[in-house]
Amino acid sequence: MAATADLETSLDDGVLTVLINREEKRNALNAAVLQGILAAVSSPREDARVVLVRSAGDRAFCAGADLALMGEDATGLEVHEARGGLREVVLAMRACPLPVVARVQGLCLAGGVGLALGCDIVVCSDAAEWGLPEVDRGLWPFMVSGLLARHVSPKRAMDWMLTGRRFSSTEALEAGLASRVVPADRLDGEIEELVAALAAKAPVAVRLGKQSWITATDAPLEPGLEALQAQLALITTTKDAAEGVAAFFEKRPPRWTGR
To answer: What are the C-alpha distances in Å from 187 to residues 47, 75, 208?
Structure first.
């Protein structure tokens, strides 16, 4: 386990857990948190199979950037570069060869929405509340808007950004921000089952599959399909693919080697 005052990481049964540990600050993002998440998803250990991003307490998953940082004695350039931390984390999550899962409870606001959207799967408590309140602080969710554009309709995004209103987990699910919504008392159980299932999947298939999905969704259709065909040809040459087919016909659990 690695730990700082604001962030803890641990590895257990292939699950790399990244815990934002700023409950008293509603798990707001600061440089230490962003740098810790970036390090975890950029260079996961070889025996890690899935990344779980979660936070301390029940009050908030993440309330966004720590606004107290805006009052610190720093130059405009330093503040600007620090705000690029969320961008780096989101891009690293997309490039991460492992599935990245978010456990969302309590408040998910501003940059916290961006953090959740950077993850591959978002499991949300039915008691959680989402929102983009920047406009009420004289700000705007510039970074998050680029992610919203990939998940929801322009009309829905503008509603949230212009009004700054809170919205429910149900609305987040219906709009495409969340993958699953479960009762609050089932959140941990759902997360445990999900990450265990993901950790048991074929590592090569997960890595190539995630990479190909990003390629397909970013590229125009024709070159995207060509890239997917190449990935299909590649995966059929792997030992994991041969093992998976053999296990199917022999009616036994597969033994993945990640090769």
So the answer is: 25, 42, 29
Q: How far is CA 47 from the centre of its chain?
A: 19
Higher pLDDT, 233 or 4: 233
pLDDT surpasses 80 at 76: no
Count of CB atoms situated within 10 Å of the CB of 212: 19
Between 66 and 121, the higher pLDDT residue = 121
Judge contact between 16 and 50, C-beta under 8 A. yes
The pLDDT of residue 79 is above 90: no
Nearby residues of 12 by Cβ (< 8 Å), 6 or more positions away:
none
Instruction: Please name every residue paired with 51 in a beta bridge, in sequence order, or none if there are none.
Output: 16, 100
- Other C-beta atoms closer than 10 Å to the C-beta of 59 total 14
Catalytically active residues are 134
Tokens of 136: 């009420």
Distance CA 130, CA 108 (A): 5
Residue that has been written with the tokens 């890595």 in this structure:
207
The C-alpha atoms of residue 256 and residue 14 are separated, in whole angstroms, by: 13
Q: How confident is the model at residue 77 (pLDDT cuts 50, 70, 90)?
A: low
Beta strands 129-131 and 180-182, pairing class = unpaired
Give 253's Cβ-side CA count (13 Å radius).
5
Determine the pLDDT at residue 166.
98
CB atoms within 10 A of CB 214: 13
Cα(94)–Cα(111) distance, rounded to whole angstroms? Answer: 17
Residue-averaged pLDDT of the chain: 92
Q: What pTM value is reported for the model?
A: 0.92
CB of 90 closer than 8 Å to CB of 117 = yes
- By C-alpha distance, which of 246, 179, 237 is closest to 205? 237
How far from 32 is each of 21, 22, 35, 37, 38, CA to CA, in Å? Answer: 11, 11, 5, 9, 10
